[in-house]
Amino acid sequence: MMDLNQRKQLILQAIVEDYIRSNTPVGSRTISKKSGLGVSSATIRNEMADLEEMGYLIQPHVSAGRVPSDRAYRLYVDRLLKKGMRDEERESARSYFTSRVHDMEDVLSLCAQTLGELTRYTALVMTPRQSDLKVSALHLIPIGEATAMLIIVTDTGMVRETTLRVSDRLNADSLFAISRMLTDKLRDLSLRQVQDMLYGYAAHGGADARVLSGIAELAGQIESQTDKDRITVGGAHNILHYPEYADVARARAFMDTLERRESLLNLMRPQESVAVRIGYETGMKELHDCSVVTAPYRMGRGHIGTIGVIGPTRMDYARVMETLELVARELSAILSL
Amino acid sequence: MMDLNQRKQLILQAIVEDYIRSNTPVGSRTISKKSGLGVSSATIRNEMADLEEMGYLIQPHVSAGRVPSDRAYRLYVDRLLKKGMRDEERESARSYFTSRVHDMEDVLSLCAQTLGELTRYTALVMTPRQSDLKVSALHLIPIGEATAMLIIVTDTGMVRETTLRVSDRLNADSLFAISRMLTDKLRDLSLRQVQDMLYGYAAHGGADARVLSGIAELAGQIESQTDKDRITVGGAHNILHYPEYADVARARAFMDTLERRESLLNLMRPQESVAVRIGYETGMKELHDCSVVTAPYRMGRGHIGTIGVIGPTRMDYARVMETLELVARELSAILSL
DNA sequence: GTTAGCACTCACCACGGACGAGTGCTAACA
DNA sequence: TGTTAGCACTCGTCCGTGGTGAGTGCTAAC
Fold first, then answer.
1. Contacts of the segment B286-291: beta carbons below 8 A, 24+ positions apart
2. Quick one: B218 exposed, middle or buried, by C-beta within 10 A (0-12, 13-18, 19+)?
3. Percent of chain B at pLDDT above 70?
4. B270 with B303: CB under 8 angstroms?
5. Which of A76, A84, A79 lies closest to A13, judged by CA?
């Protein structure tokens, strides 16, 4: 007795699922009727008392039903939940991604939004750290009198541009030539290498010094892009639909947490596959009543990013995990085209 | 009597300003003390009764103070408010924009965020309609075995890219040549023209048909980019700080309205200068208790976009209007570099 | 035209009792 | 030994009630 036998597991599962649905403490009578075990509420009460002692359940107050603990959710996620997205759902999720502009940046922010809509929770999209990005092409395009647009393409397919002033004796032809030369020279170098090299050249002076240091600067900016910029949030407003955020102060606190992107980065460290962090497992006190589910995606040659969903601990883990898997797969496919 | 004399205006101004600050109905005693008119509360009461009759004030219930009507805010905005941003504020606002990546897309979403932070309300940024954009350059960059990245730069400095498969006998050199040729041919044509032309060429077949129709497709996608994509929202969570949204249902309704971007477009139609729409003036029933302040900015050659702020009708109009003016100016400067 | 005084209104809040969901415990039963 | 009916008990939620105070409109005096 007091081991987590089959029946206890079934009861726990029933409680977790009922609580996920209703967000109200679950009573013994409810489980007696719904679990399909065919035992009375008194028996359930005994089992529930055991489960509480084992740390799976919490009683908000003596005359309330039970609420699952983090530990219960953990067990539920690891062993009890049954996936089973319906095909229509899967198909509609997939269709969100096809037939859209395959623009690298767009895809990521679109992904955050989409993921929010699909899961009805808040979505996070992290792009891989960019310091070890390699330059794959570099172009100067004339856009006006003595101004040019500089475009750097990295091996992840990311495109960054800036405008810069150039010597007015550089016409379209010379810019073409320079672009070509620079691309040949710089291809497959890391941004840092590009930066160092070009600052070196620029220091020697010459007519193109301005262009060279402009390029070096953009490379530097891409590289040192703050961590904050690496996380996109989508569907933050979704949490307003959940009663745990009926109190505006809580909603505000949640939103404020989302603003502090640096700390979110810890949650989004690449994992091997779909990962679930429940309540205190997130390691963030502000998120002790939230769970975070993440999945890795591939971008370009071997760079790993993370997409994730954050919501109340009583989230619909099965649906979220499946959606994330699916979206991560679609996303990887698009990005490594 | 019953004309809007000097004193009535001063009283009205005092009421509006007190209400903007406190969000509670304003009583006669408060105004008697704060207006500096040196008259008793009874006198104020008489004036307030007149102002109510004239439609400037509303009494939520008999024993409450008065609340300004849309009409009062209108008068306040048109004639009563005194601007006067402090220099530090102005400087700090400006510094938000300098020393950042001048990446076209980035600037706009950064602008939305920044504007949200500066005003503490919700910010909207609209990019000009893109159907009459002209192509200013077009590049094909090899990124892998038989795949290339296509980049289109428009005359507003906007950059869009996509990856496409190309015939594997096109090496870097041929792509360069094609890019150059296409840029020469297509420069200053509208996206629609480009699209029509290329589909025509592609129909004739040939080895490059795939590339040509790829380009046409991207041009089409840029052009037909849904209206939804043209508005960026920033700082939506700010409204949670205002007591009018203490009720989550209201906050949710507000957020939902923000999601329906098409209808927001009406609010963001380019105006000549800073424009204020108060309450029902927005023309959107859902926003009857909100005001929208907008300002135009210039982008590239003659394209006009709009930035705006949306918040409760009792918003701090003076501060918002000044901030918008300032940000619009900075933004125009960056974008028409 | 202004003001003091006064009766009146009504939103807000704190208090308190009824209600009911759910429990733990006990004793009887299979 | 596990299951169940019965029962006393707990405590959060709901709702009606009365007190409090901010603010009003009106009247009469200045």
1. B286/B253, B286/B254, B286/B257, B287/B257, B289/B244, B289/B313, B290/B254, B291/B73, B291/B315, B291/B317
2. buried
3. 92
4. no
5. A76
Mean pLDDT within A209-227: 71
- Contact assignment for A137 to B136 by CB distance below 8 Å: no
For residues B230-257, one letter each, b for 16 or more C-beta atoms within 10 angstroms of the residue's C-beta and e for the rest, the string is bbbbbbbbbbbebebbeebebbbebbeb
From residue A213, alpha-carbon distances to A193, A315, B176 in Å are 13, 50, 24
Higher pLDDT, A160 or A312: A312
Q: What are the start-end ranges of the H helices in A23-60?
A: 28-34, 41-53
Q: Which of A95-99, A187-191, B3-7, B264-268 has the lowest mean pLDDT?
A: A95-99
Give the pLDDT confidence of A234-278 residue by residue, as tens digits: 999 999 999 999 999 999 999 999 988 888 988 998 889 999 999
In this structure, what token pair is assigned to residue B95?
A: 């510094």
Which nucleotide has the least CA–C1' distance to A46?
A: C24
Interface of A with B (CB under 8 A): 101-105, 136-137, 139, 141-143, 147, 149, 151, 153, 155, 157, 159-163, 176, 180, 183, 218, 221, 225, 236-237, 240-241, 245-248, 251-252, 255-256, 258-259, 337
Burial of residue A196 (CB within 10 Å: 0-12, 13-18, 19+) is: middle
Q: How many Å lie between the alpha carbon of A100 and the closest alpha carbon of chain B?
A: 8
Check B236 against A241: CB less than 8 A apart. no
Q: Is the CB of B68 under 7 A from strand D?
A: no
> For residues A166 and B333, what is the distance between their CA atoms, to the nearest angstrom?
18
Decide if A157 and B143 are in contact by the 8 Å CB cutoff. yes
Distance measured from the CA of protein residue A312 to the C1' of nucleotide D6, in angstroms: 39
- Res. A111: pLDDT tops 70: yes
Higher-confidence residue: A201 or A74? Answer: A74
Instruction: Say if the Cβ atoms of A161 and B104 lie within 8 Å.
Output: yes
Cα angle A258, A260, A266 (rounded to 5 degrees) comes to 90
Q: At what angle do helices A248-259 and B248-259 cross, to 10 degrees?
A: 50
pLDDT of the residue at B169: 77
CA B27 – C1' C9 distance (Å)? Answer: 15
Question: Which carries the bigger pLDDT value, residue A230 or residue A100?
Answer: A230
User: Smallest Cα–C1' distance to nucleotide C2: which residue has it?
Assistant: B43
Asked if the Cβ–Cβ distance from A255 to B245 is below 8 Å, we say: no
Closest-CA distance of chain A to residue B258, Å: 10
Residue with smallest Cα–C1' gap to D1: A1
pLDDT confidence of residue A225: 61
Give the per-residue pLDDT at B1: 53
Whether residue B337 and residue A163 make contact (CB cut-off 8 A), yes or no, is: yes
Would you say residue B140 has pLDDT above 60? yes
> Is pLDDT of A316 > 70?
yes
Report, in ranges, which bases of strand C sit under 7 Å from a protein C-beta. 1-5, 8-11, 20-26
Contact B267, B277 (CB under 8 A): yes
Q: Which of B149, B215, B261, B334 to mutate: most A Cβ within 10 Å?
A: B149
Separation between Cα atoms, residue A269 and residue A128, nearest integer Å: 9
CA of B29 to C1' of D29 (A): 21
Q: Is the pLDDT of residue B191 over 90?
A: no
Q: What pTM value is reported for the model?
A: 0.86
Confidence of residue A229 (pLDDT cuts 50, 70, 90): low
What confidence category does residue A282 fall into, taking pLDDT thresholds of 50, 70 and 90? very high
